[in-house]
Design brief:
This protein is 31% helix and 25% strand. The protein is an alpha/beta fold and 523 residues long. The strands form six sheets. Strands 2-1-3-4-6-5-7-8 form an eight-stranded mixed β-sheet, with helices on one face. Strands 9, 10, 13, 14, 15, 16 and 27 form a seven-stranded mixed β-sheet that branches. Helix 1 packs across helix 2, helix 3 runs parallel beside helix 5 and helix 9 runs parallel beside helix 14. It starts with a helix and ends with a helix. The structure holds flavin-adenine dinucleotide (FAD).
Length: 523
């Protein structure tokens, strides 16, 4: 099953194993099952501490296998083959089952071990989804650390009828006790907070009280993407009291697969760069508060940043680095059918629409790239572009035009996502030239119409452009002295990682300058 290089790599990983691992295989008579048995054979060859048993009786999905300590104790199961992006999840599951410590802080380990409830999770994935392994690995780690938690990865392509029956139209989708627990990219701390909130209802209130009790910050950075990370590093290096509050550390970088224009690094991946951002910030004395959403900022002697959790943070200066998010179409049915056919990530969710009909909304570079990718997987792609011409690069348009299973409608305004109550069945669009409304029958809609700045929390507090972006001067200062802005959230053009980082550094230095000048004035 595995090639010679992968076998050698696996062997070197499993050399770290010092405790026995017992794999139980649940085979059937399919080709995938034969491949699974061959994979398990490769694993046993790589380490004498791994043994494989077969169970042909037990109920449950087949082909699948579970990874256990002898005598039970770990509830990790893989249904379908964990290859592609999930191979790393398998290797980590083996290592962690054998007691190899996960790379997380002791506080996180403690929180996982303190979960005092029996929880069975199932995560539906596709093997080409780059967001899925993080979720699978987080869930597996919890199962390895806490015997009351069990987790099963389900490869959607292998269990297609179940995917359809359960109306799963986006990956990763995590089920808890058969009900949807979460879908899309989720970080370990986000999953953990959600579980803790479920099993300990007072936890959120206690966290909010702890946040409100914090001493005022000299500089509070709101947003943990490239701009926020750079701002926090520059502030902390000045030796001032720095905090960073963010919904999820990494920002849009987490949604990015390959990055090839981060100057000095010829190629990297979004998840890796996001980890690097966090690790670099953690080198310094920065108070990192994640999973917290800012809802307003109030100027005063100290700025007060209110959070959705009810907490209020105080600071002498604030850096707004809240970036941007996917733009919605805002048409009837879009919100209702999100993850039920309406999707935003073609790399992740494309394989779930194999052999089906889909639409891509948007004819810019990201829309046309998505259409080209999807055309290789699905039966047919309809591209709808509002403008009278596609706005993508000529080379992409030429490639698109060469594909036999793509139809392009220009001057087309999407008017409604249509569904049967469970899932998308089509869409309607208006021909802007004639006013005629047409219906297209399909199962998936990929929305690729750009980004919108995350400035709801700033509305009424500082000046925003007509597009809702933060207006900044050459030092990154906004219309309110002491509040600075950086990155994709601002009017600064060309939304890119290196630009966001540079702007974050600049805003931080600008804010430091402001702090020095205001302290001199006060004296
Ligand atoms: P973001 O990355 O958007 O970070 C915003 C931060 O603010 C996040 O931590 C978020 O959780 C937080 N936040 C948002 N609202 C709130 C709130 N109310 N309260 C608290 N926190 C909040 N750029 C490149 O240079 N090269 C590429 O190859 C590339 N590829 C891309 C591919 C994709 C699919 C996408 C979406 C973007 C890509 N970009 C690329 C653009 C790049 O990712 C952005 O320019 C960059 O991430 C902007 O950084 P930022 O810090 O300004 O904002």
């Amino acid at each position: 099953m595995l090639d010679a290089d992968t076998k050698a790599q696996l062997k070197s990983y499993l050399e770290r194993v010092s405790q026995p691992i017992e794999i139980t295989a649940f085979p059937d008579d399919s080709e995938t099952s034969r491949n699974m048995m061959s994979l398990l054979g490769d694993i046993t060859e790589a380490s004498h501490l791994v043994s494989v048993l077969q169970n042909t009786e037990a109920p449950g999905r087949r082909p699948s296998f579970s990874v256990n300590r002898p005598g039970g104790g770990v509830g990790i199961r893989f249904s379908g083959l964990p290859m592609g992006h999930e191979f790393t999840s398998l290797v980590l599951a083996l290592l962690q089952t054998a007691g190899y410590p996960p790379k997380v802080s002791p506080e996180i380990v403690q929180q996982i071990q303190a979960i005092n409830a029996d929880l069975h999770f199932e995560t539906f994935v596709s093997l080409t989804c780059h967001n899925c392994p993080d979720v699978v690995q987080a869930m597996n780690m919890m199962a390895a650390l806490n015997p009351r938690i069990t987790h099963e990865m389900v490869e959607g392509g292998q269990f297609q009828s179940e995917v359809e029956e359960r109306q799963i139209m986006g990956v990763p989708t995590v089920l808890l006790g058969g009900e949807v627990f979460g879908s899309g990219r989720m970080e370990l701390d986000e999953i953990l907070a959600k579980i803790v909130a479920l099993v300990d209802t007072g936890a959120a209130e206690r966290t909010a009280a702890e946040l409100s009790a914090k001493e005022p910050f000299d500089m509070l950075v709101v947003g943990g993407g490239p701009a926020g990370a750079a701002a926090a590093i520059y502030a902390a290096r000045k030796g001032i009291r720095t905090g960073i509050v963010a919904e999820r550390f990494g920002g849009q970088v987490l949604d990015t697969l390959a990055i090839e224009n981060f100057v000095s690094v010829s190629a990297t991946e979004g998840a890796r760069l996001a980890r690097g951002l966090e690790e670099h910030v953690r080198v310094y004395d920065v108070d990192i508060m994640t999973l917290q959403r800012a809802v307003s900022v109030k100027p005063g002697e100290l700025f007060e940043v209110a959070l959705e959790s009810g907490a209020v943070l105080k600071a002498k200066s604030v850096i707004a680095a809240t970036g941007a998010r996917w733009r919605n179409m805002n048409v009837p049915g879009e919100a209702e059918y999100k993850t039920k056919g309406v999707a935003y990530c073609p790399h992740c969710d494309g394989p779930l629409f194999k052999g089906k009909r889909v639409a891509v909304i948007g004819g810019g570079n990201s829309g046309i790239e998505a259409a080209i990718d999807l055309a290789g997987i699905v039966e047919h792609v309809t591209v709808l572009e509002f403008d009278t011409k596609l706005r993508a690069d000529a080379v992409l348009i030429a490639k698109l035009n060469s594909l036999p299973n793509v139809t392009v409608h220009l001057n087309a305004k999407t008017t409604e996502v249509v569904g049967d109550g469970q899932k998308v069945t089509g869409l309607t669009y208006e021909d802007r030239a004639t006013g005629e409304v047409h219906r297209v029958n399909l199962e998936g809609i990929f929305v690729q119409i750009g980004l919108v700045p995350n400035t709801d929390w700033l509305k009424g507090a500082i000046e925003l452009s007509p597009r809702g972006e933060v207006i900044v001067d050459v030092k990154g200062e906004t219309s309110v002295p002491g509040i600075f802005g950086a990155g994709d959230v601002t009017t600064v053009p060309y939304k890119q990682i290196v630009i966001a980082m540079g702007e974050g550094a600049k805003a931080s230095l600008g804010a430091f300058d402001h702090l020095i000048r205001s302290s001199v004035k006060a004296a």
